[in-house]
Amino acid sequence: MMDVITKPDPGPSREYHFPSFDEETLPGGTRLVVAAAPKLPIITILVVFDAGAAEDPAGKEGIARLTARALSEGTSKWDGAELAEKFEQMGTSLDTGADWDSAIARVTVLPGNLAAALTLLGEVLADPAFPEREVERLKSERIAELLQLETEPRGLADERFPAFLYRESSRYARSQGGSAESVRSLTRSEIDAFYRSRYTAGRTTVIVAGDVKKADVRTLVTPLATALPRGSVARLHAADIPAPASRAIHLITKDGAPQSEIRVGHAGLPRKHPDFFPVLVMNAILGGLFGSRINLNLREKHGYTYGASSSYDWRRGAGPFEISTAVQSDVTAAALREIFAEVERMRSEEVTLEELSLATSYLEGVFPIRFETTSAIASALANLIIYDLPRSYYDEYRKEISRVTAATVLKAARDHIHPEELQTVIVGDTGQIREGLTSVGAGNISVAPAK
User: Fold this and answer.
1) Residue 16, in any domain of the structure
2) Burial, 393: exposed, middle or buried (Cβ in 10 Å; 0-12, 13-18, 19+)?
3) How far apart are CA 110 and CA 211, in angstroms?
4) Residue 231: which pLDDT band, with cuts at 50, 70 and 90?
5) 31-36/22-25 β-pairing
6) Section 102-131 average pLDDT
7) 423-428 and 248-253: which strand pairing?
8) Do 221 and 279 reside in the same domain of the chain?
9) Sheet containing 204-210: which strands, arranged edge to edge?
10) Same-domain status, 214 and 306
11) 376 is in which domain, residue-wise?
12) What is residue 4's predicted lDDT score, i.e. its pLDDT?
């Protein structure tokens, strides 16, 4: 007779402490944050600038992203290829980019190359040349990217969705990378002016994580900080006011498309909202995990899709709340009904203890393994700076998750998901799917071409 082995109950979670870090403000206003992690024999240097896409002037959308990408294209001393080779000789590469709230430059090196890497990085950040030829190449790449998105339903849905959530005057209503029109209008001199006004010492934070000592880092970083542009401009706050619209469906025509790309949502919440943790758990249950309600419904129960999810795009302003999936054209209306039903169910009744435990256990369990590299530690520290979070945020994270209850999840859903405001964008074969959508009850239906 075979012995039956009973699976043991899990023990209590081990206490977690985020790596300790020190911070100070250097002469000129640059912030320095140092996280010593001697068990990791490498060092990540992450320079964060208050120069994200929310800073794009009206009509110049895309300038933040283009400026960040152009940083690595050369200085007055080295061209882009020479810079890349010099970083390669140190066993690393320079990564630059921008999102909605910041621009970054990042390198990861062995401790013996720290001084050389900071010197070269300082040249890149203090003396970018923005060569005309490379600026035009980067502009052409963005315009080509947009042309490609027009042919690909998933990218097209993602690109067009925000315009239906926010007022036309909002920066959030337009793509982070800019439109073909706005990018085409950008000039080298405008990029240089954006750099000189936003990449200043007072808008910069240098984060160093790894096998380092603070005193050594301060000595090495000070020349970089001193060489940055001076001056300051007031931070632009992205207008995140929702579009004054009732529930509606917006069809974007892709004749002959076998699938419908579906996006449903409305303007969400800013990152520093006091309900962040209840909303995080609520979204995990609704559509943030593989075992979430929306995915289990559309994928497992009905077989409409390979995957469906929901998410909040956390920004300084209220980024989008979005439900996303792709289904066969003939079940578009049925899938949309199930999405709305799950939204209503989330707002009408408490989640089960099993659902709550699954979500909180996952969020608590994966949290510590997110910070096992110097790059991850540096990125986490950047988030503290960008979103002005408390120093204790990472040490308190799992406690905050554990405090969320079924009642607070229900309150979060009722307070922050608004069925009457949901905008639905569907990229697909309008002729095949439109008639079925009239009975869904998702609002007025409008049709637009892909271009």
Assistant:
1) no
2) middle
3) 9
4) confident
5) antiparallel
6) 97
7) parallel
8) no
9) 22-25, 31-36, 204-210, 43-49, 103-109, 95-98
10) no
11) 248-449
12) 59
Q: Is residue 6 a part of any domain in this protein?
A: no
Q: Are residues 156 and 253 in the same domain?
A: no
The DSSP element (H or E) to which 207 belongs, if any, is: strand 204-210
Residue 46 φ then ψ, to 5°: -125, 115
How many Cα atoms occupy the beta-carbon half-sphere of 288 within 13 Å? 18
Going by pLDDT thresholds of 50, 70 and 90, the confidence category of residue 233 is confident
- Per the CB < 8 A criterion, the answer to whether 408 and 402 are in contact is no
Q: Max Cα separation, the chain? A: 82
For residue 156, CA distances in Å to 83, 146, 152 come to 35, 9, 6
* CATH, residue 88: 3.30.830.10
> Does residue 244 register a pLDDT over 80?
no
Same domain membership, residue 416 and residue 342:
yes
Split at pLDDT 50, 70, 90, the class of 232 is confident
> What contacts 319, CB < 8 A, 6 or more positions away?
100, 172, 240, 267, 268, 269, 270, 312, 313
Residue indicated by tokens 């095949």: 432
Any domain includes 14: no
| 104 and 186 part of one domain | yes
Residue written as token pair 């909180």? 360
Give the ranges where 306-405 is alpha helix by DSSP (H).
332-348, 353-366, 374-386, 393-402
Predicted structure pTM score: 0.92
**Which of 196, 227, 258 is the last residue before a domain boundary?**
227
Number of domains in the chain: 2
Place of tokens 């000039």: 187
Instruction: Please report which helix (H) or strand (E) contains residue 449, including its range.
Output: strand 444-449
